[in-house]
Specification:
With 315 residues, the chain is α/β, with parallel strands linked by helices. Helices cover 43% and strands 17% of the residues. The protein folds into 2 domains: 205 residues, 3-Layer(aba) Sandwich (Rossmann fold); 90 residues, UDP-galactose 4-epimerase, domain 1 (Alpha-Beta Complex), CATH 3.90.25. The strands form 4 sheets. Strands 3-2-1-4-5-6-11 form a 7-stranded parallel β-sheet, sandwiched between helices. Strands 7-10 form a two-stranded parallel ribbon. It binds nicotinamide-adenine-dinucleotide (NAD).
């Protein structure tokens, strides 16, 4: 394998970014992490730099000049930096500034420097509340918050630069990502943390309604593998779902976590009307275009996560 490939990874010190960088290193890539460390793990990024294959640039995607200067010499771009979904309603300006202006800075630098591929972290939230499952890439998009609007615009800007300048891109619509290294404030997956905290205190998970609302939980190692496949793929210029295709209800999740922790409790149901939203990816395009299929089942992934958290707490 050639070792002249350099991936410029924005947000490379974040939860998903660090897993991506580790998998790129396993495949002999050189990596430049570009991250303002707002939510990044600087220590882990610096540790990876000791391999001699990783540079770390502590800069902001909102600065077009900094992006262009740091991207020099890169052959591929993986754009993961984003303002979090939690912040987007409270600070719309910042959300659009990072997620739209920042993405534009990354793409225009990529065009100017003639990189071979841009892979963009989009989100299943661009669909809004789906009318049917599984959610297919050609379904209507109905982004509901500034974060989701920014993600959709990030995709539209890729299409614009494909038409204008022949940019080669893939936008990956991540479903509900979980796994080691995730922040406890993660928006959609905070339910995992909430249940685990209660179980560790000997309390049962409390579920609103019947717990029918569901998510498509996908392990961060599978997400990182999809990112690397998209970066190396010969096919391009499409939005692709990255999920398992399985909708796990909140009630199922509670039982999976009870088993993983080995707690002797039953979930409690809090009878009230809840808006039941459900999510599951149509996974066919991911398989056809980039050869991706998930490998970590939600039960195994959650059990590993509990073991990881337990070992970390014991250190
Ligand atoms: N985690 C999920 O469930 C999920 C689901 C769908 C999409 N995504 C997308 O995947 C990407 C990575 O998500 P994550 O969960 O690893 O989030 P994260 O917050 O852990 O990582 C984002 C990284 O980007 C950096 N960053 C933020 N603003 C920046 C800026 N202005 N300039 C430079 N760096 C900046 C942060 O410091 C952080 O290291 C994001 O684009 C996110 O929207 C995540």
């Amino acid at each position: 394998m050639s070792n002249t490939r350099t991936a410029f990874v924005t947000g490379g010190a974040g939860f998903i970014g660090l897993h991506v960088v580790e998998q790129l290193l396993e495949r002999d890539w050189n990596v430049r992490i570009f991250d303002n460390m707002w939510r990044g793990d600087r220590d882990r990024a610096n540790e990876l730099a000791k391999t001699g294959k990783v540079d770390v640039v502590d800069q902001d995607v909102r600065s077009g000049g900094a992006v262009a200067a740091a991207m020099k010499g890169s052959t591929h771009v993986i754009h993961l930096a984003a303002d979090s979904i939690n912040k987007s309603v409270a600070d719309t300006y910042s959300s659009l500034d990072v997620n739209v202006v920042g993405s534009h800075n990354v793409y225009s630098a990529a065009v100017d420097q003639g990189v071979q591929r841009v892979v963009y972290a989009s989100s299943a939230s661009v669909y809004g509340d789906p009318k049917k499952l599984p959610m297919h890439e050609d379904d209507e998009l109905n982004p509901l918050t500034p974060y989701c609007i920014g993600k959709r615009t990030g995709e539209d800007l890729l299409r614009y630069y494909e038409r204008k300048a022949g940019l080669s891109w893939i936008a990956l619509r991540f479903f509900n990502v979980y796994g080691p290294g995730q922040k406890t404030t993660a928006y959609y997956t905070s339910v995992i943390n909430h249940f685990v905290n209660r179980l560790r205190n000997g309390e049962p998970p409390v579920i609103d309604g019947k717990g029918e609302q569901s998510m498509d939980f996908i392990h961060v190692k599978d997400i990182a593998r999809a990112v690397v496949l998209a970066t190396e793929s010969e096919k391009a210029n499409a939005a692709i779902n990255v999920g398992t295709g399985i909708d796990t209800s909140v009630a199922d999740l509670a039982r999976i976590l009870i088993d993983a922790i080995g707690a002797d409790v039953e979930p409690q149901f809090n009878p009230r009307d809840v808006l039941v939203s459900r999510r599951a990816a149509d996974t066919r395009r991911a398989k056809e275009m980039i050869g991706f299929e998930y490998s970590i089942d939600v039960r195994d992934g959650m059990t590993d996560l509990i073991r990881f958290e337990h070992e970390r707490a014991a250190v």
